[in-house]
Specification:
Low-confidence stretches: 1-35
Distance between the termini: 82 Å
Number of helices: 12
CATH class of one domain: Mainly Beta
CATH architecture of one domain: Sandwich
Largest sheet: 13 strands, mixed
Structural class: alpha/beta
Number of strands: 33
Radius of gyration: 29 Å
Bound molecules: (3S,4R)-3-hydroxy-2-oxopiperidin-4-yl beta-D-xylopyranoside
Length: 722
């Protein structure tokens, strides 16, 4: 690649620099100027010389200089014979970048085949497990469009890997061929980030608990390292200590990257938490594949846990020994064995894989605190199952020193703005009562979408961060550590939902200030809460409940039952609500793909549920005015409490795999009137063709706790009575 010569426009003078590329000041820029004063073009490639610094990114694709087509000058680069969406021309731009600076990146592309597709200009930061990928510009392109410009901006906050590429890929069609010309990289004059203005979070939480974040090897230098070191006193490797990273091939442990990461932060006087010794994800196939014998599985599990824990002994304060072993929203949480996720470990070994694993970790590193770590632990069913498991195992397998087998429970804390802090509090209380320590291990709060966050969403997110940290301080006696899962929105695993404290430019968001001083922040925004409680009108009118949808229903607005409690997103629907002086009327239309009521548990059958808190007092446990009304697609009913069924009428009409439920629920504890607010929610249970509940959709309350706690219900406002 050396000796590459670049044409300077107009000058036609060969130029040789590092990699033979044009460096700032070497050329004038052309085409539409990057916005703003003081921008510097630092790299331009027009393919006018006999060599070029691009390389194939995948394998089979061919890159050829050609004069068949050009955007300017006489040549361009032809890319053909691609076989994967991510294949394409790639150039390492790391030598040209300054950390913390934002760049405008632009190139011109002309399609060769197919007739039309979508192309994307992207950037890769770092290599291997530490790599992250970001789209810079994406658009559709057709043959008849000729040359099309792809432009976008990106701020590189970490360049320490020395490997940062720009490349063109085609997400929709791995075989598209195209010409590339006139790539330009412009450093924008936007200001650098200043670190000094913010109080370190770790000092603010010094009296309470450790405060942490995650890192990868790409974070070990530069501004990201500085920011991590400034605000946090404990680090978790985002991916680097997972089974797939440490023992991809049996017996061949690869510790170099993880050691580098751990030692870099230890050298800063920080601490390290280990994540994770066993998980059903990011684990190599050989470790626990389908059909492995119990003996072999135990051997693999124990060897991995012991070798890894022994390797980091003395350098980590704690381990997530086991990650995510309990299913979502288990219905019989007392029976924690029945609530275990059917992971390969479970299938090969049985439920005793859990004590075996913890014992192995304890033996290898007796000093480290051993954690069970899971998500959605604000779901009370899941929290109860974890409680039951830890309680039983700690009673059954006490350590010689009298130490419990499991020292701590990690609440991951992947939240959304409508997460209810009250349910988080319930779980903290529950776990604290076990006497184990608690850590919040992967905190982030999704808000907004598509990497966009409005002012009001940003405030809501900050309010939830603020109320959670107020709560965490209350439980500081039990909480050892609070770790965020992501330094900034752009590098987060959920980048599109803006979940962290710093924006893509590493500037502190409102969320940062809410965490830094929650009492002050909450006082400044008094009366506001994070929850976006859904509200809707119920309209005055009396339909006949007979399975025929009277036109009067049309007068009530449609409520979407479209928020999901579990990972699987199955049946959903819409509802309408009417009322008269005696009753509330609910119509729910469910769209499903298969109707099934094989399960003996009514809640596992295809069915619809209404939750009612007549007085809207939002009590954390059911009072006399609260009720749950369930109707399945065959119009079989069930109630909680049983007495709620008195005076209830329902009718159902099915149509293929969809069904419509009409219900009449008499008011018993309140005289309805215009303007009255009623606590109300709707749930759609979706049974699989095997008769197992595979999905739960709700109107508002995603606590998973609506059957016993009304505090998360949405609100119905009664209107329309003449
Ligand atoms: C995530 C990482 O953030 C991603 O980079 C990776 O691609 C997938 O895993 N629960 C966990 C973490 O315990 O290990 C996960 O981390 C997020 C969910």
């Amino acid at each position: 690649m050396n000796g590459f010569r670049k044409k300077c426009f107009g000058l036609m003078k060969p130029f040789t620099g590092i990699l033979g590329l044009v460096i700032a000041g070497g050329c004038q820029s052309r085409g539409p100027a990057a916005p703003g004063e003081g921008n510097r073009t630092i790299l331009e490639i027009g393919f006018e010389t006999e060599t070029h610094p691009f390389e194939p990114r995948g394998g089979s694709e061919e890159l050829t200089l050609t004069n068949e087509a050009f955007h300017t000058g006489a040549f361009s680069l032809r890319i053909e014979n691609r076989s994967k969406p991510w294949h394409g021309p790639s150039i390492n731009i790391a030598p040209y970048l300054t950390a913390g600076r934002e760049y405008e990146i632009s190139c011109w592309i002309r399609l060769i085949s197919p007739e039309r597709t979508e192309l994307q200009l992207s950037t890769q930061i770092g290599q291997g497990d530490a790599a992250s990928y970001h789209g810079v510009a994406k658009k559709g392109i057709a043959l008849q469009d000729g040359w099309v410009q792809y432009t976008g901006t990106y701020r590189y906050t970490n360049i320490s890997s020395g490997y940062i590429t720009l490349y063109v890929e085609s997400p929709a069609d791995g075989t598209a061929s195209f010409y590339l010309d006139d790539l330009r990289l412009t450093e924008l004059a936007a200001p650098m980030i200043s670190l000094e203005d913010l109080d370190p979070l770790k000092s603010r939480y010094e009296p309470y608990f450790l405060i942490g974040n995650i890192a990868s090897n790409a974070d070990l230098k530069g501004i990201r390292f500085d920011l991590l070191s400034r605000h946090f006193n404990v680090i978790t490797a985002e991916n680097g200590m997972k089974p797939a990273s440490l023992q991809a091939d049996q017996g061949a442990f690869t510790f170099a990257d993880a050691d580098e990461l751990v030692d870099a932060f230890l050298a800063q006087g920080m601490q390290v938490h280990g994540h994770t010794l066993a998980w059903h994800q990011q684990s190599p196939e050989w470790m626990n594949h389908e059909g492995i014998s119990r003996g072999q599985a135990v051997e693999n599990l124990v060897t991995h846990a012991k070798t890894v824990a022994a390797h980091f002994k003395g350098r980590v304060i704690s381990w997530d020994v086991l990650n995510e072993a309990i299913t979502d929203n288990p219905q019989n949480p007392e029976d924690w064995r029945g609530a275990l996720r059917e992971t390969p470990w479970y299938k090969a070994i049985g439920d005793d894989y859990i004590p075996l694993l913890f014992q192995a970790a304890r033996e290898a590193d007796p000093e480290a605190k051993l954690y069970y770590n899971d998500y959605n632990l604000d779901n009370q069913n899941k929290a109860q199952a974890v409680y039951a498991m830890v309680k039983e195992l700690n009673e059954r397998y006490p350590d010689v020193g009298g130490r419990p087998l499991i020292d701590g429970i990690g609440m991951q804390g992947h939240y959304r703005v409508n997460t209810n802090p009250k349910t988080v509090a319930l779980s903290l209380e529950r776990f604290a009562s076990l006497g184990v320590e608690i850590s919040i291990t992967e905190l982030d709060i999704q808000a907004g979408a598509d990497a966009a966050l409005s002012e009001s969403q940003s405030l809501q997110q900050a309010l939830l961060y603020g109320s959670l940290f107020t709560l965490f301080k209350e439980y500081a006696g039990s909480i050892a550590r609070v770790t965020f899962w992501g330094l900034d929105d752009a590098s987060s695993w959920r980048a599109s939902a803006n979940p962290t404290l710093f924006d893509k430019n590493l500037q502190a968001k409102q969320a940062f200030y809410a965490v830094s001083d929650p009492e002050r922040f909450m006082a400044q925004h008094q009366g506001l809460t994070a929850q976006e409680t859904r509200r809707a009108h119920a309209v005055f009118g009396s339909p006949v409940v007979d399975g025929i949808v009277d036109p009067i229903w049309e007068q009530a607005p449609a409520l979407p039952v479209n928020q999901y409690l579990m990972a699987w997103q199955g049946a959903s629907g819409t509802a309408r609500v009417l009322w008269d002086d005696a009753s509330l009327y609910v119509l729910v239309t469910v769209t499903d793909t298969v109707l099934n009521k094989a399960s003996l548990n009514a809640y596992e059958q295809d069915s619809v549920e209404v939750f009612l808190d007549e007085r809207n007092d939002k009590a954390a446990s059911f009072q006399e005015d609260d009720g749950q009304y369930r109707v399945n697609f065959m119009n079989e009913t069930s109630f909680n409490p049983q007495s709620a069924g008195t005076g209830f009428v329902s009718a159902v009409k099915t149509s293929g795999a969809s069904y419509t439920v009409e219900m009449k629920i008499p008011f018993k504890h309140r005289t309805p009137a215009n303007g009255a607010e009623i606590g109300f929610d709707l749930q759609i249970n979706d049974a699989s063709d095997q008769g197992i509940r595979q999905s739960v959709a709700l109107w508002n309350d995603l606590s998973g706790n609506s059957f016993q706690d009304t505090s998360g219900y949405g609100i119905l406002v009664l209107t329309g009575k003449p």
